[in-house]
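QA checklist item 7 of 12: single-chain prediction sanity check.
[x] sequence parsed
[x] length recorded as 330
[x] structure emitted
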Amino acid sequence: MARMTLDRLEAIYNQPLFDLLQQARAVHEEHWPRREVQLCTLLSIKTGGCSEDCSYCAQSAHHATPVQPEPLLDKEAVMRVARAARDQGSTRFCMGAAWKGVREGDKKFEQVLEIVREVNSLGLEVCVTLGQLTPVAAQRLRAAGVTAYNHNIDTSPEFYANIVTTHTFEDRLQTIRAVQDAGMAVCCGGIIGMGEALVDRLRMLEVVTGFDPAPESLPINSLVPIPGTPLENLPRVDLFEVVRLIATARVALPRTKIRLSAGRENLSREAQAMCFFAGANSIFFGDKLLTTGNTAAEEDLALLRELDLEPQAPFTDIQEPHACTREAHA
């Protein structure tokens, strides 16, 4: 699908709400007729002490937040969580490390690769978010069994420097190119409610629609203001702004999974139902995201049943990496 222009995205977004919802629902039903929702579990495998200064993040060493630095989790600790996630119904296991990026040859990176191999053996889709990647590091992650790499662009290129100064927007795009060249799917979205204008949210979508191929999944995060961060006093995002952006993203990216991400714990069951109707078909599932709360797993499953939605099976629309993994370790 060709990149959408900002003018086109504005026209979609600014329709009367019910017209927008009807359009988004029609696109969703055409491309996602099974009414499935991808259940993802997110685990922080290395928390806090990050050298980046992302204004929204509790893990930045630049901010005085309640999050204390912790070392990289050992393999068995990660596997206990991964097995429990699989048993609860998750089909994708996402692991995040608070690093600026990956250094080839580093002992911690080798540990992460071994963890990835073990999680992959459970039959789960494996997603990681480790910061910036070189092409070589991306290839090694793919060979170990990573199916998707999360690297959000957060906001528009124009607003980005207001949120992060320790790396550039172009740095983000370089990592995304390395991920795609290595054959991993891209999980890339943004955060709303950071003081940006509507045009910044739509510019974020404009950039993402230009990826070739399109992102496999697009998380839409609502800022959770965390004490000690520069954004701690910003107001919560209005529900209808979230719904409009989800619906616009669904129209712009018909085959991309739209993930209702951070901030979901503040939404009622009815509000979440509206987000699913608008085109969201992926959630983080479980009690906690990286450093913020999440809706309990039992509540999520009950809501999906109420809405006649089914958990999506793993590897139904993404390449399973086992052949690559066996080749790499033959």
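[x] summary fact logged: The two ends are 38 Å apart (CA to CA).
[ ] second reviewer sign-off
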